[in-house]
Each structure stands twice: as structure tokens, then as C-alpha cells.
Amino acid sequence: MPSAPPVLSPPSPPSPASVLPVRSGASPGPSGPPPFPYGPYGRSGRGAAAVLPMVLAVLLLALLPAPAAAAGEDPGWTVRPAGGGSAGRETRPYVYLEGVPDSVLQDRISVANPARTPLTVRLRGDGRAGPWLRFGARTVTVPARTRADVPFALALPGNATPGDLAGAIVATAGGGTEGRVQVRVRVGGPTLAALTVEDVEVSGGTVRYALVNRGNTPLRPRLAVRADGVFGVLLDRPERPLPLELAPGRRVELTEPWPDAPALDSVTVRLRVTAAGGARGEGAASAAYVPVAPVAGGGLLLLGALAVLGTVAHRRRHSRGESQASTLPGPRRRRGRRPAAPGPRPPRENRSGIVKRRHLRDRVPARRTVPATLLLLLAVLLPLAAAPGVAATVRAAAGDPAVTLSKKEAGKGGDITVKGTGWRPEALLMLLICGRSSPERGVIGGTNSCANADGRAVTTDRKGAFGRKLPVAEPPEPCPCVVHVATVTGEQAVVDAVFTVAGHPTAELPPPADEGRLAVLAPPRLAGESSLLTWFGAPPVRQLVVTVGNPGTAPVKDPVFEIGTAHGVFAPQWEERQWRGTVAPGGRAQVRLPVELSAGAHGDYQVSLRYGTKLLAEQPWRVSRPWGVTLFWVLLCLVVPAAVFRIGMAVVDKVRPRPAGTPPRHAHRPPARPTGTGTGTAALPWFTQDSAPAQHRRSAPSEKRPPPTTKGHVWTRNGG
């Protein structure tokens, strides 16, 4: 059979892999190109022989066993809060401590070592609560396959800020690995906000001052500045927030620029600082702005101008004669104008004949439209109608948190269910069984009275509710007991539900201790002035005025202070002073206590105020010298020698010898006798009453003198 003709197709181009280089001068043979002279690893397969030993070495190293971990570097060791189960949900996620300032709180952590060698760890504190953490031993060695419970304490200082703060316990092993346990601390007690402005100084265009936080809570101050001059207000800046936060007890020095300060004026700058919680402080300073060169030049020019004016006025007065002032008989009056007639003026008419009103009261008031009145009524009534709903919403949102227990009594080893409502949404809570507690007095002693190892943590839902099982454990203190539920972070909220641990000892609660504490909230000052008697050596008397606050949890009633006065380098002499009054927890009061020095005291004194064992304040007191006493001694030194000198001279004059017949110097001289011949009586004058001249003779009234007459009668010689 004849075959089918072949199908011809265009030749395909050669592939790049089939194209081989051709040496110059050589022609390919009929059998194709010569073979490639080099293999993939070099000449004659030597590359494969060199790589094979390396591959075998890698496989050998992979088959060898790994070296054992060094001692102490076992990553299996753990550190966590003690108690709370072995693992999982029952483990405490953190350590929770609660107490008041000036208290010591205790708890434990567990370090587990599952390795076959001992483990050595170093413990330290970290975070805000880190400096307050105390350990019995900084280095702890845990034997192999052992868990060790390590106790620790947290000492809250007296100036601890009420609120929540966080810290951590860091455990570091020998190899550098670390484990951390979170510590949450809730500091109880009332918050006390106090802020003072001190050391105010005005210098040129800058005002310098210092802010001191004397309370127990952080503050964000706001500053207002005002400057008054001789002719009015020069500067008035409204309140504005300062870019800082003052921690309790912190002092910071700041400056306030004043670019447009006056060139010539006497100003008083006042600073007012406020903060949340009722904190308020004020400070003032005065300064005089006097440019020396312009003032001196202006004064000289003014004196020269006054001299010139005085000279000109003097010359004019002497050059012109005195002119007689002409007086007018009556007030001038324009001609052709009649006086206005009494009574109201008639209204004027303009050109169009419309009468113009002269007073606004003559205008007819515009009538208010009905829609405007309706809108006004709606604006007043709508808020009143909506007020009950708003108040109900606020009351519902501000409801107090509540806690309910599934059982009021249970024994150790059991559990109860704790449910709560009305809490802050998504708030972290801590549940503890505490002894020596009551809902009225709270947990006495803080978390030291609670079974911390068996506590549980829970987070509320969006509605502020929760439910959690709590194992029953015996607290370290005897009952009465409570289930203590408290917030860990944020705004403090605490609820104590009465609970009885079956079989646990019971004891009465201790009497309320005086836990009130006092702190100074403002710089002290000495009030009063010296009297005139102090100038002559009377005891100087002042009043020490100080503002105190109570950051404790109990009121302070009729506190007894101690006032000490020290002169120079001598130790102070203390005297008790009782102040009548009560300072409530979180309250403040101004205390005035008398201070008296000894008679004639002068110089520099230091007045100290102490409450209990705590020194509250110190105030210097410079007492002036009693110059009246000095004047008395000066006069005494002058008068006494003069008197002694006079007495001595009299004695000398009395006892000194004199010639015969010479009377003493200060002897009494008898009166001189009159000269005459008579022996017994003194000589009479040269004339007597009868022999005196007629013009000098005295006689009785004459009978011919008319007697006095009465009104309407005339005297006659015949007696008529």
C-alpha cells in the first residue's frame, strides 16, 4: 500500500542548551561537537570527593547527644504567689496587699525547682512598690525537685498616698533567667490635698516662686497671676494649668515671665494656685521699679523749670500794677430772649407734622408674639419634665456595690459562691476571707488578717456583676470574720460580708485605737506684737498659728502638742499645750497655741511644734532687745553715783573741823533781831492809827451816808 505523504513543518529554532561554543580554527566533525571537558565539580570528579567528608562530619555531629544544661540554668523553674492551688485557674495571678500608712503587710511567694540540681535565685523589688519590699534573705537556694515558700513584707511609709499602686518581685537565677510576681497594693485612708506657694520674688521681668505639695495625694496645679500698681492693675492672667504633677512632699521652683514690666512703679504681685480636692495656696511679693538715670535727669529738669517759672512770675508781679476788679450788678442775659415758662414743654413737631416724643417712656412697647411666649414656656418646662428621668438614671448608675454569699457558715476545705452587683464595669476585684473584722470597722490590720494564699481574683462584666467560687480557709486572726471584696485598681470600693468559719477560734474585737495622725498643711507663722512692758523686760508672748490636717482613719480629739523654744545652740525646752477641738479624718483645722519666753529674753530663738514623736514644724523668732531695761541701767549708773557723791560731801562737811565761832556750812541761821531800845516788844512804826494823816485815816462809815434803797422808793433826810 502506498504510504501517506509526510507532513512537513517548519524547523524549530535550536534551543539554547544545544548551542555549544566552538573553538576558533576548529571545525566540527561529522559526529557532532566534542564532549564538555569539565564535570560539574571540577576536573575528573574531584569536587564530589572533597564534599563527601564534610557531609559525613555533619551527620556525625547530628547523631551525637546534646550537652547537658548547666546547673541553675534549667528553664523549668517557676516563681508565683504562694498557695492558691497547683496550677491553672486556681493560682493567684498576683499578690494583693491592703493596709493603711505606717503599717507592715506580709505575704509569701513560691519558688519551684524541678531540676536535679539546686537552684539559687536573687530577689529584689521593682516598680513603685519596689522600694517598700523587704526580704528576710536576698539570696535563696532551693534544693533539687523542691518548692520553697519565701516570706516577704511590704512596709507602707507614713506619707504613702492613698490609692492603688503596682510593683513586682523579680527573681533572677544564675544563668540570667528571670521570673516576676506582680504585687498590687491598695493604700487605705482619706486623701488630703494641700498646696502652698512659698519664696515669691519679683526681679525685673521675672517672678520666681516655689510650689510645695504638703498633702498625701498627687496634684496638678493651676496658676493665676495678678499685679497691682499705684494707678491700677498692671497684670491679670486667668487660671491656667501648669505642665507638671506634684507628688506628695515634692517641692519645685518655677518662674513666671513678665515681659512688659513697668519702668517706674511700685507693684505688688499676687500668685494664686489651686488644685483638685480643695487645695489652694497664695503668695505675694512687692517690688519697686525705679530707673535711676531717667528719674535723676527728670528731677533736674523739673527743678530747673520750677526755678524759671518762679522767676518769671516774680518779675511779672512786680512789673504790673494792681488792677481793680470790676463787679457786675447781676447775671448777664441775652437780649431778645424771654425766660422759659414753668411747666412741661409741649412736644415738638417736625416738618411733616408728626409729633416727636422726647422720652423713651412715651413710646408704645412692642407686643410680644404668641410663638415667642410658647417657646419660652417650652424652654422652661422641658428641663423640669426631663429632670425625674435624669435623676433616676444617676441614682441607678451611682448604686452602691453589693455582695451576696451562698452560705453564711462553712468549714475549712469547703467553698462558697460569692456574687456581686453594682460594681464598676470590667473592674478587677479581690476576694479574701479575713478575721478580726466587721462591716462597721472593716478589716483591722489590713491583709495581715486575711487568708491571702487562698484568695481569688475576678473581673466584673459590663453590667458590674460577678460570680466566683471561694475556698474556705482559716484566716491568721480569730473571728468575727468577713468575706472582703475590694477593687484592685481604679476608684476604691470595699464591701465586707459577715461570714463564719466553722471551728475557727473567736475573740472580741480590740478597742478602737487612736490611729489619728496630724500633718502640717501650711507654713507656720507667729502672730501678735510686743507690748510696752516687753520693752522694759516683760516676757515676750506670741501665738503659733499652723494649719494641720488628719490623714489618718480615726478622728483626733483635743490633741496635746509640745512646743519647744531653743536659743542659739542649746536644746529646746518643751512644754505641753492642749488644743480644744476635733480634726475629722481627711479634715483640716487652724491651731493657735501660745508661746512665751522668759523675762528679758532677746536674740534669735527657734520655736518647734511636736505631736507625739513627730516633729511637725519649726519657726524662727527674732526677739528685739528690751531697751527700756538698758535705759534704766544707764540712768541708774548716773543717778546712784551722783547721790553717793552728795551724801559723801554732806558727811565730809559735817565732820570736818572748823575754827571757833564759825557756824556749819549748812547750819540754820536764826532770823535777825530788829534794832531798837525796847527789850520786850518790837518798835512800832512812826505813826499810829490816831496820828495818821487824814487822807490815810480809816474810819467807820458815816451815818449821813444814804442807806441802800429798793426799787420805787426814794430816800430823804427825814426818813421818808
List keywords for this structure.
720 residues; alpha+beta; Immunoglobulin-like; 5-stranded mixed β-sheet; 4 helices; 36 strands; disordered N terminus
Task: Present the secondary structure layout.
Elements lengths: L45 H18 L14 E4 L13 E5 L3 E11 L5 E9 L5 E3 L3 E4 L3 E11 L6 E11 L4 E10 L7 E9 L2 E8 L8 E8 L2 E10 L9 E7 L7 E11 L3 E11 L2 H28 L50 H28 L4 E4 L3 E3 L3 E7 L6 E7 L2 E2 L3 E2 L12 E4 L6 E6 L9 E7 L6 E9 L16 E2 L4 E3 L13 E9 L6 E2 L2 E8 L5 E6 L3 E2 L4 E9 L6 E9 L2 E10 L3 H29 L65
Parallel strand pairs: 2-9, 18-26
Antiparallel strand pairs: 1-3, 3-7, 4-6, 4-8, 5-7, 8-9, 10-11, 11-14, 12-13, 12-15, 15-16, 17-19, 19-24, 20-23, 20-25, 21-22, 25-26, 27-29, 28-29, 29-34, 30-33, 31-32, 31-35, 35-36
What does the model show?
This protein has 4 helices and 36 strands. The protein is of the alpha+beta class. Among the domains are: 92-187, Immunoglobulins (Immunoglobulin-like, Sandwich); 195-292, Immunoglobulins (Immunoglobulin-like, Sandwich), CATH 2.60.40; 402-502, Immunoglobulin-like; 519-628, Immunoglobulin-like (Sandwich). The strands form 10 sheets. It has a 5-stranded mixed sheet, with no helix packed on it. It has a 5-stranded mixed sheet with strand order 18-26-25-20-23, with no helix packed on it. β31 and β32 form a beta hairpin. The longest helix has 29 residues, at 627-655.
Task: Kindly summarize this structure in a few lines.
The protein is α+β, with helices and mostly antiparallel strands and 720 residues long. 14% of the residues lie in helices and 34% in strands.
Distance between the termini: 225 Å
Q: What structural category do the secondary elements indicate?
A: alpha+beta
Helix tally equals: 4
CATH topology of the domain at 519-628: Immunoglobulin-like
Mean pLDDT: 76
Q: Percentage of helical residues?
A: 10-25%
CATH architecture of the domain at 519-628: Sandwich
Low-confidence residue ranges: 1-49, 58-74, 324-328, 333-337, 349-370, 373-378, 380-398
Biggest sheet descriptor: 5 strands, mixed
Number of strands: 36
